[in-house]
Every structure is written in structure tokens, then in C-alpha cells.
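pinned: reference chain
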Amino acid sequence: MNLLHRFVFVFLVALIPFTASAQDYSVGEGDILEIRVYENEDLDTTSRVSSEGTIRVPLIGEIRVEEMTVSQVSTLIEKMLADGYLVSPQVDVFIKEHRSKQAVILGQIHKPGQYEVRGQVTLLEFISTAGGVTDDAGSTAIIKRTGEGVDQKDKIVINLENLIEKGDASLNINIQGNDSIYISKAETYYVSGEVNKPDSYKYETDVTVIKAVTMAGGFSKIAAKNKVNIIRTVNGEKQIFERVNMDEPVLPGDVIVVPEGLW
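pinned: its C-alpha cells
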């Protein structure tokens, strides 16, 4: 697959909907929350999450909300207001301003570096922010995620081909603060000998010998078409497979050799 050409629709992310709700956003230091209490406008307030992970709410005072979702904060305030203050309170909580978080993207990307993550930003949106992938990009994005707990580290491997080509929206995950994203380099194979354009080529799934030769401009006039060999590294050792079938699958790193025909 030509990942670069198809990455145009990184800018049309809506075509691959991401279903996570804003209510699932985890509140953290620096977020500004807007709190509205139905039919009790005097209790409406705006509060910034402190460095201790707390906010101040009228009547209730200071409550801890760090790492709670927006819906959990709403439920907590309702419960506390119902405890001696209001009858069946209804509370809505909104993120008025997201805290500034940072994530890093490296590898085969046009503008590698550190970028802000404001609110919910999906993988495709973040790649788009960094200018999209390069010509040499492979089909894998690796996300290294560090949590709050000791030794709590995750390595998430995303198949970009499945995300983009097959529209697997479950792979378009949200990027979090402190994430490190690496876009892999595409693997290659080589076509040499009696072809019109001998060179290295970007490996794609389902490549066969005849497809590889076609990519290399086809056989030359003096090519021995029935004597094509493949040099392949197996368990660290180079092996030569002679007179391979034209439908033989090509593997990353293969060297396809088309010899000259004997006259």
C-alpha cells in the first residue's frame, strides 16, 4: 500500500469516526471546569483544578477530582449537594479550558517534535498536526505510554494499514499527555539484474515476484524469465532460492535477481 498517498484523509478524520465521548475525559491539573446546577444559578461556578487535583464548589467547598471523568465529577457533586443541601440536584460539568499537555512524535513524520495535546486528540489528528507521514513511512505506529503508577508503562502498536485502509476506528485512539509516538520506517525489497528499473522498493503486503518485477519496470529484452532467483536471509544466514515461481510471495529484505538469458 502507498501509505503516504492515502494519508490525505488524515485531514478528513470524520470519515473514520471516533466514538469516545467528552464525558470520558479524565480531569487533571490546570483544567478549568464549568459547573452548572439546574434551577440553582447562584451555585453555578467556574473552577480551575489545583496542583493538588481539587476544585472549589459553592456550599461543598474543596473536593478532589483529579483523574475522574467529567461524568464522575458531575455525579460526585450531585451526591454531595443532595447530602443536606438540595433535593434531587441536577449538575452539568463542562471542560471550559483543557490543561496544556505535551506528546512527542518521531520517526517517519514530516515535522517530528513535541506538540500540545488539548482535550481529546486522536492519533490521526495528532499525525496531521505533525505534517503527516513521509514517503518512507511504514504501516506501524508505536505509542509508548507512561502512567502515574510506578513502572506503569504501556507499549501500544497500531497497524496504520488497518486503521486507514480498512477503516478500523478502534485503532484511532486518543493521544495522552507524555505519550511518545514513533512512526516506523517501511521495509524494503530489492530487484536487480535484467529488469528495466533495478532498485530497492517499499515493501507492501501481498507482493509476489511478478508484481515486484513489474514495479521494477518489467523484464529487459535479454532477461531469463524462467530463472529468477531470490536471495533471502533465513535465521541470520543468506540462502538462495533458484528458479522461483512468479507467484512466490516476496518478504521484506528479499533480493530478487533476474539473470541474463543465455544465447
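why pinned: Residues 126 and 175 are 8 Å apart (CA to CA). Residues 8-20 have pLDDT under 50 and may be disordered.
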